[in-house]
Structures are given as structure tokens and as C-alpha cells.
Amino acid sequence: MLAPVVFLFFMLLSLSAVAASRTAPGLSPVKRTPTMDGIALPLLSFSSDQGFGYGAVGGMYLYGDGSKAPYAHALSAQVFFTARGAMNHYLRYDGPQLLGPLRLEGRLEYRQEKSSPFFGAGNLSAPDFRGDVDDQRYNYDKGSPGLWVRLRGRPFGENHPFQSYVGYGWRYTRVSPYETSILAQERPIGIEGGPSGQLLAGALWDTRDDEADPTSGGVEEVALRVSGLATFSRYQYAGVTLSERRYIRITPRLVFAQRLTLDMLFGEVPFFEWMTTGGVNVSEGIGGMSSVRGIERNRFAGNVKAFSNSELRFQAARMSFFGQPLALGTVVFLDLGRVWHPGVTDGKWHEWHPGIGGGLRFSRRAAVVRMDYARSTETGRQRFYITFGHMF
Predict the structure, then answer these.
(1) Is 320 left (phi over 0), alpha (psi -120 to 50) or beta?
(2) Which first-to-last residue range defines the signal peptide (predicted)?
């Protein structure tokens, strides 16, 4: 959640366009499609959740000869620090057709949070919370190096909408609760921290017209994750995630986008997994830039989570930036979410937590930067987000 005091605008570079403009003497320049895009985003920011922050995030997309969609290779990296003692560093690779028809994806990361949020379990947790995210009652100290790797494929052909995947994820979580915190008082499963390895599997039915910036079609997904001694995990539990993403073109420039997600966990679930979902695109919450915008990150957590995201996306203009085409878009959205957890009171079925807002989108081929402002209609508190890629 980044509310910037200074935001150094991202640079869209096309190195291959420079090379293509160099021709032999006496020959006319040949216009070619760029084979590489790069993004660099320096950050100097302030967040109501993380305080002053600084770092950099970037990505590189290699298109090759254009025969592989949406690109041949993608590599992204982030280095980020905040004044509240948080770190979020990662290196990620994506090769859509690296191993023949199989897509190889992987991520290596390290996260540290001196003030990782924990408000207890359930849809009505921490009723006395008034928005002070620095209050140690609602925080704990956490460190968590981890990695995951995944193979995705289309067993019925490259153009068939059915995809399946298998993978493995591992994380070691260090938990240090503050003496006055809710975590220290409740001492849920997972208070000891330790390793949690997961076997991952799932299937998708993908009819989107464009993976990075879709305007029609949709994705239905079912995902499974299992942890136990055989996966090098201290905890034994399983999870199921069901997700629906749908995109409807209303006019040539206006698209309605909708996502519905239901995530269910069973067994000996450590509390730090209450906030996560499974699937190809992992979310956390309820609350934050990947689930319900406008609500404090991970404000509501439990074994069962459900959320809905509705967006109207409008392509406002196209322009040239450093000699390369750039699209500017605007978005308005409504997010809703809630949780259920065994042994606690979760309120009535219609007690969902909403967030509303709007934002800007800057896109260049497969690269999308989003900036969102959101407000919780329950509390009136506000959030601002800057990140890469559409929310869904």
C-alpha cells in the first residue's frame, strides 16, 4: 500500500528499437517490432501501513520473434524497504513456452515485517481497532524467506482453453509476538513458526483475448494445496481455491471486469496462512491491494475467505512516451469481502466489508502499471496503491 511523496515515473524502454534503426549505409531504415521491453520504477513513498519506503521494482519482457505469446521470457525483481522495518525483495521468472508446451514459473523472495498485521480470527475481529496500524496490539515481528516453482501446460493443444499445473512452494516463517499483542494473548496454531511446504495443483479454463490486459473472455480456476511431513512442513493442512474472472467489452474503449474468489482451508492451519489464497495469482486478505482495497492489509482473516472485485476499465488515450506507444486508462471499482472461522462469531451472512475507489492504468504491450485510490465505506479510512499488473 503505497501513498507516494515522490513517485519517479516509470520508463518504458525498447532496446531493440534502437538496434533496428541502425542500418547499413545506403539502405533505407526498416521498421521492426521491438523484441524487448524494459520497465524501471524507482520508489520513494509513504504508506499508512508501512511508513516511509524506498526501493526499486522493474521488469523485462523478451518477445523474441513474436511466435510466443504473450512473450518469450519475463524477468522481474523488486528491492523495497520501509521505515517500519519491512523488507520485500523478490526475483521472478516466467517462461510461457520454455519447455515446449510447458510454462515454467518461479519466484525466490525474502520478506520481513517488524509490524506484520494480526487482528485475530473471524469476520468481526478486533472490534476496538480504530485505524492505528502502529499499535503493537495488532502487530507482530515476522521474517519469511521462501520460494515456489510451477509448471503449467495445455494438454489438449496450444489454442485450447484448458490448462493444468503442478508445483511446489516452501517458506520458513519466524514469528516473534509482542508481549501486549493479540497474537501473544490468543496463541493460535503457528505461533511457533517454522517451515511450511506445499504441493500445488490446479486447472484453468482460459478464454481471455489477452493475458496481460484482457478485454473479453474469462478464466475459471480450481486450485489445491497440501502441506504435511512429506512436503517438509511443520503443519498438516489442505486448501481449495475456486475463482472466476470475467471480462465484458461494453464499447470499444470500455470493459467491465469481475472476479469472484472463494478459498477454504482445512486441518492444522497455521495462523499466517489464514490471510492467503491459492491459485495461479495468489492473493492475501481480506484487506489490501490484492483482495479488498481501502481496508487495512489482512484486516480480516480466517479459514474460509470470499471476496468480489468489480471494475469498469476505460481506455482514455494513447500517446507516445520516449518514442514508444503508451495507453492511458482509468478505472472505477467496488470490492467486497468477508471471512468465516471455526469457533468464533462471524456475524450475519450479509455482513461483508466493502471498499470503493478509482485509479489510473498505464500500459505498454504486456506491461501494465496501476495506481489506485480506495476508501472503506465502513470506517471512512483511505488507502493508495501503486504496483505492476491489473489486480486480476
Answers:
(1) beta
(2) 1-19
